[in-house]
C-alpha cells in the first residue's frame, strides 16, 4: 500500500477534473465552502498550506486574495503546472512550492498554518489516520482543515444505478492502475471518527455533485449548467444528499487553547 503520484497521468487529470462540468461544480462548491470559513479566521493575510495541491487552482485563487500559500505535492509534474498557473495569474510572490509528501509536512513549516487544504487526497493515501494527525499538528490553535474526500456511498450508488452488480459483489477492486478512480474510497462516518479522534471539531459539511453524475441527459449538464449548479447548491448541505455526494467537504477546526481547558 502506497500513496498515489500523478506524474504519469497529469494530462488526463487536467482534462477529466478541470475540463468538465463535474470539475466546474466541484470548484464552485469548494469556493462556496471556503468563502464561508475564511471570515472565521484572523482578518489578515493567512498562512495557508495546500497539501497535495495538484495544479494549484484553489491555491492560486487564495494567493490572489493576498494570502501566503505553500503548495505541496509529491508529483513534480503537478508542481510545474501549479507554478506555471501561478505565474500566469501573477501570484508567484504569494506562493511557495515544495515536492514533499503529507507525512513530511512538519519538517518544512516555518510556523503553524491558519488553514490547511486537503482536497481529493485522502482517498489516495494508504495511512489516512496518520496523515490527518499530521495535518492537525500543522495547524495553529483555532485553525481550520478544509478536507474534501471521495465518498464510498456515492461510488456504490453510481454502480447500483448502472447495474454493475458483479463489480460490487467482487468488492469493487480496481481493474487498472493508471486511472483516476481512487484507490481508497472513504466511508464518511469513518472519516468523521478519524477527525474527532485527532481532536478536530467538525463545523460544516457539504456534498459535492449530489445529483449531477446521475443525470440521464448529459447534454443538459452543459446546456443548463447554471441551473444545475443552483440545484446542487440548494441541496448539497442537507441530508440525505450530503452523504450521497461523489465527494464530501468537511470544515474541521482545531480548538483554540482556551477551548481545550
UniProtKB/TrEMBL annotation:
Signal peptide: none
EC annotation from Swiss-Prot or TrEMBL: 2.1.1.-
Domain of life per record: Bacteria
Keywords noted in UniProt: Methyltransferase, S-adenosyl-L-methionine, Transferase, tRNA processing
SUPFAM superfamilies attached to this UniProt entry: S-adenosyl-L-methionine-dependent methyltransferases (SSF53335)
Keyword Glycosyltransferase: no
The protein's role, per its UniProt record: Catalyzes the methylation of 5-carboxymethoxyuridine (cmo5U) to form 5-methoxycarbonylmethoxyuridine (mcmo5U) at position 34 in tRNAs.
Protein name: tRNA 5-carboxymethoxyuridine methyltransferase
Amino acid at each position: 500500500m502506497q500513496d498515489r503520484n500523478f506524474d504519469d497521468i497529469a494530462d488526463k487529470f487536467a482534462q477529466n477534473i478541470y475540463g468538465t462540468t463535474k470539475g466546474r461544480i466541484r470548484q464552485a462548491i469548494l469556493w462556496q465552502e471556503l468563502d464561508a470559513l475564511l471570515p472565521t479566521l484572523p482578518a489578515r493575510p493567512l498562512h495557508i498550506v495546500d497539501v497535495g495541491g495538484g495544479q494549484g487552482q484553489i491555491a492560486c485563487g487564495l494567493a490572489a486574495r493576498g494570502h501566503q500559500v505553500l503548495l505541496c505535492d509529491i508529483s513534480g509534474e503537478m508542481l510545474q503546472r501549479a507554478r506555471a498557473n501561478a505565474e500566469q495569474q501573477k501570484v508567484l510572490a504569494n506562493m511557495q512550492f515544495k515536492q514533499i509528501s503529507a507525512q513530511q509536512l512538519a519538517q518544512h513549516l516555518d510556523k503553524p498554518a491558519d488553514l490547511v487544504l486537503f482536497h481529493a487526497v485522502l482517498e489516495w493515501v494508504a495511512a489516512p489516520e496518520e496523515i490527518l494527525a499530521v495535518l492537525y499538528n500543522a495547524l495553529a490553535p483555532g485553525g481550520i482543515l478544509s478536507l474534501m474526500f471521495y465518498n464510498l456511498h456515492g461510488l456504490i450508488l453510481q454502480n447500483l444505478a448502472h447495474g454493475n452488480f458483479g463489480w460490487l459483489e467482487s468488492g469493487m477492486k480496481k481493474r487498472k492502475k493508471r486511472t483516476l478512480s481512487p484507490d481508497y474510497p472513504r466511508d464518511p462516518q469513518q472519516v468523521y471518527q478519524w477527525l474527532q479522534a485527532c481532536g478536530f471539531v467538525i463545523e460544516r459539511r457539504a456534498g459535492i455533485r449530489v445529483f449531477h453524475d446521475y443525470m440521464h441527459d448529459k447534454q443538459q449538464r452543459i446546456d443548463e449548467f447554471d441551473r444545475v449548479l443552483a440545484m446542487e447548491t440548494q441541496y448539497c448541505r442537507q441530508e440525505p444528499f450530503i452523504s450521497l455526494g461523489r465527494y464530501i467537504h468537511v470544515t474541521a477546526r482545531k480548538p483554540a487553547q482556551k477551548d481545550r481547558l
